[in-house]
Amino acid sequence: MMAASFNIWERNPGRAGDRELLERAARAYGCQGLDWRNGSLAFYYDDPETGREEWNPLQRLDQAMRLAVLKGFTVSTRAGNGHKSRVWDQFGVSLCTVGHNGDPVAATCRAIVQAAAEVLDRSS
Fold first, then answer.
1. Residues with Cβ within 8 Å of residue 101, at least 6 apart in sequence
2. pLDDT for 93
3. 29 φ, ψ to 5°?
4. Least confidently predicted of 42-46, 79-83, 104-108, 117-121
């Protein structure tokens, strides 16, 4: 089965801070040995089971969902109330809210990644 992906960079090429955000989310996920590739705007890491893997849950829905499940997040997307995606931790603490801006999937992925980075920052 092919992994779902989309190109958030088309609207936000080189978005400031995404590299740091992805790196913090990767650390929260447990990725080791990250290698940044400017050409693809993504990190790569060595997965012991599958080999070299791209890490970019801002673009890859499957990675964002795995991150949410691993961290025990509750994710809500709502068409009402300003069209936002929101993430809570396993204790019900709100971590992040992101407006959809016409793309609820991209907003949900971004909310999950930001929430993972927030959890990492809180535990440091």
1. 107
2. 94
3. -75, -25
4. 79-83
